[in-house]
Design a protein that fits this description.
2 copies of one chain form a homodimer. The first copy, chain A, is mainly β and 182 residues long. Helix content of chain A is 7%, strand content 25%. The first copy, chain A, is built from 3 helices and 8 strands. In chain A, the strands form 2 sheets. Chain A has a 6-stranded antiparallel β-barrel. A two-stranded antiparallel ribbon of chain A has the order 4-5. Chain A is globular. At the A-B interface, strand 3, strand 5, strand 6, strand 8 and helix 2 of A face strand 3, strand 5, strand 6, strand 8 and helix 2 of B.
């Protein structure tokens, strides 16, 4: 965002033109089609990927190597707008989108954690595994995963609990519709 | 973002004007000044807060109640631009900002998890605790915390390990400078 744009009043922040969302890089992954991509990293622990960080942001990668996992904030760039309720991949009724990790969110920002293998600061390359992003996904941020604040194994799974208890797996996605010509 | 904005080519996404970041609500918290706010939710487990969700987005809160924790994506609205390296609150040399959770990020988006207590979909109120956000923080997204993909207690803490092992606590922040008049 620009230096003087974000005030602390709602009116200012509600103006879309006053915000700048920086794309810091791209994910290179084995997943070219939506129907191929796993739903979350745990589903594809061996999937290797490389985060290509743009030259302007490479210095910010210093000290990242050594963490076991990192968070990626990214744009659901293939998503088409948002919906208040969505069909979950494990079936059942539509659920409020804030109660899911589905792409169709008001701010179409995704969150995923991946295992970190190596960081080449000079080349702007971050080598990861367990990545569920589509190839070419725009990255907004990279953050270290900190177990002391991020690991809550007993937090429960809300409405998903009965689906997990019954061993229901996510269903395959529908094939990606071709992009409309611009 | 607008319906036709996000293409899959870098050129399009690099244009700030083509993206719309929706502010879905505001956090109401006890923390009015930067120097008062805890560094992460674990530092203030009893701090209560309310997420006020704007009318357009309230229907998306359906089914959220029942989760133990939720993720909040928010704007660091008091942050002033980004820096590739930042001084960590536990001391030591500057670190690459992608290796920290500091506010001074290229896309000034923060990530925190809070304990969920109650959801009033009709009023657009989400009652939480363990919140480390400043009062009035703009919210970009609410997502359920899913231990099956989010809980990695053994991931390690990278360069922070020796500071944690030595029991070094974050130092107090400097007082907030007054906002410049507009």
């Amino acid at each position: 965002m620009t230096a003087d744009a974000p005030g602390h009043r709602a009116a200012r922040l509600a103006v879309p033109g006053s915000l700048e969302l920086r794309i810091v890089g791209r994910a290179r992954t084995p997943w070219r089609r939506r129907e191929d991509a796993p739903h979350q990293p745990a589903a594809a622990p061996d999937a290797r990927g490389v985060l290509e960080i743009a030259p302007d942001y490479r210095a910010a990668l210093a000290d990242l190597e050594g963490f076991g996992r990192i968070w990626l904030l990214f744009l659901f760039h293939r998503s088409r707008g948002w919906a208040p309720r969505v069909k979950p991949p494990r079936g059942g009724p539509k659920r409020g989108v804030f109660a899911t990790r589905a792409p169709n969110r008001p701010s179409q920002i995704g969150l995923t954690s991946v295992a970190l293998h190596a960081v080449d600061v000079a080349r702007g390359e971050v080598h990861v595994s367990g990545i569920d992003l589509l190839d070419d996904t725009p990255l907004l941020d990279v953050k270290p995963y900190l177990p002391m604040v991020d690991a809550w194994p007993e937090a429960g799974h809300g409405w998903l609990e009965p689906y997990l208890a019954a061993g229901v797996e996510p269903r395959l996605k529908r094939p990606l519709r071709p992009m409309k010509p611009r």
